[in-house]
Design a protein that fits this description.
This protein is an alpha+beta fold. The chain is built from four helices and four strands, in the order E-E-H-E-E-H-H-H.
Length: 109
């Protein structure tokens, strides 16, 4: 999958790299997993350290703008990012299990 890197900057304060890309003709077709695989291949990075933060498509435009955070240490990501961002990286089956466990814990209270 071809894409163009628009912005690539190092955020020293938060210990991460912030990359913004444009995926042409992919509005409504690209998934988070596909975007992570594409950027991991191009930048030669492990997929685990790449977190897609935002995927935007505009009306009337077929291009998709994706913002990624690339962490050196995943503990920094867990501390800085909301839990739902880490949850949506999981496969659907695992996500459902975690949500069921949370519901059961709330019912017990």
């Amino acid at each position: 999958m071809a894409f163009e890197v628009i912005e690539d900057k190092e955020n020293l304060l938060l210990n991460r790299r912030e990359v913004v890309c444009i995926f042409p003709r992919s509005a409504g077709k690209i998934t988070r997993a596909d975007a992570v695989k594409a950027i991991a291949q191009k930048l030669n990075l492990p997929e685990e350290k790449i977190i897609p933060i935002n995927i935007k498509s505009s009306q009337g435009v077929t291009d998709t703008k994706v913002t990624f955070y690339i962490y050196k240490d995943l503990e920094d990501a867990r501390r800085q990012l909301p839990k739902y961002i880490m949850l949506r990286l999981l496969p659907k089956e695992e996500r459902k299990k975690i949500m069921e466990q949370k519901r059961k814990a709330e019912v017990k209270k």
